From TrEMBL:
Domain DHHA1: 365-446
Native source species: Silvanigrella aquatica
PANTHER family xref list: BIFUNCTIONAL OLIGORIBONUCLEASE AND PAP PHOSPHATASE NRNA
A GO term, aspect molecular function: nucleic acid binding
Domain (DDH): residue spans on this chain: 174-307
Listed name of the protein: Uncharacterized protein
Superkingdom, natural source: Bacteria
One Pfam family named in its UniProt record: DHH
Amino acid sequence: MDFKRGLFLVICDDPELTSTLVHIQKSMDIKVWVPNKQNQLQTSLLEACEDATEKDHILVKGDITKASFFAQWRAYDPICVVMSLKDNEKYLNVRELILEELPESRILSFQVGHPGVVPRKLVENDRELVLSWTELLSRPISAELRHIESTHRVKEIRDILGKGEKIGLLLQPDPDPDALASALALRCLLGRNKASTPFLSFGRVTRPENIAMMQLLDLEVITIKPEDLSLYDKIALLDTQPGHFTVPLSRVDVIIDHHPMVGNYSSAAYCDIRSKYGATSTIMTEYLRAGAVNIGQRLATALLYGIKADTLHLNREVIDADLYAFVSLYPDINYNLLRRMEKPEIPMRFAPVLAHALLTMASQDKLLVSYLGSVVREDLIPQVADFMLQFEGIEWVVCAGIYQENIVMSVRNVGYVKNAGDVVRRIISGSGNGGGHRTMAKAIFPINVWTERFGSITEENIRTTVLNLFLEEVL
């Protein structure tokens, strides 16, 4: 996660665990308890945090057997408390104080023992997750921390969206597998059906793999106009953000996405944007696990396909969370369905578009640019860009075409060069819309904006202009 929210309170008498927790938790404000009395434990805990950033703000001295120590943190939301105390009587007393003084907190407890003696369990209305040290060694601490934080996030989402009778799940135009899977996951998380919680988009689904996924998984996306959002009690955005749309959105209640943040969404009741994640489907898998939702074969297949599609089969921009979600979903998928979604038939209309692109492409210094002219389907542009990145010696591909009064560019690179999303944002410079990730990005210029800034929309001018724009940025 790219921004801090809430409190991460460590109550631990093991310096090694304390040190690990301090250095892996990045998403919340960290506070580490240190006993008032100067003794060996105090010295060890101080040393454990010695090289932590903002050490003076992390360490908090106090008496954890007094209610006042915990009462001082009530203003935080959410609160995650990590506990590991060797003295079981002291652990039980401290735990009771936390439950009383911080009633909305989530607790992650580590206890000495074998899983057979200390089995994994959720207690106190799912507020506390208890793990043995042995089990902890078999799974990354970071995964456990994400799990307990996700339990709070799930409650927050359900509280916000549960109040609406009709909830619209808004996806980007021509939603991709990650968006479709994420919307299906949120619908299941809320325990809703397609009638009360439909998938919405401002554009039709056109890409063959997306159509195949919808047909095979019995999904439906309703095409609406921006003003139709008023028909819904709540609006949730999946795998996209308000800043990705060319028109302002009248209202947004929930945003869940993995693309870089492109605006200030403080007006949304809930916002979870994690640009380090490879797919929004990974975030939704964590939500489902935390919400104790059964992930059936259909949903598991959708989520795994969403992760594969957005990470190029785990070869692009993945973190441990993506890998764990993928591995956890894999045993439950339908392999035949997955293969049929991944290998849809390519329509014959793609052949002349590709032929024209090959005949008119231009390359210079490891950059290849192609212009397709007017296209009847926007998805043809990224498909050509993906194909052309396979040429030997090419590190960047920019494929442009005209679609619905816009000049649309799909950008691809090999991954070890400059960030494609950053490059596109600099080129747009307020003249259009777009952005993306390190290896793939998209730019949209309204034709009237293009002509004012760059001149005519002839094939030669567009291709030459695009080539010069990107040569200045990528080399």
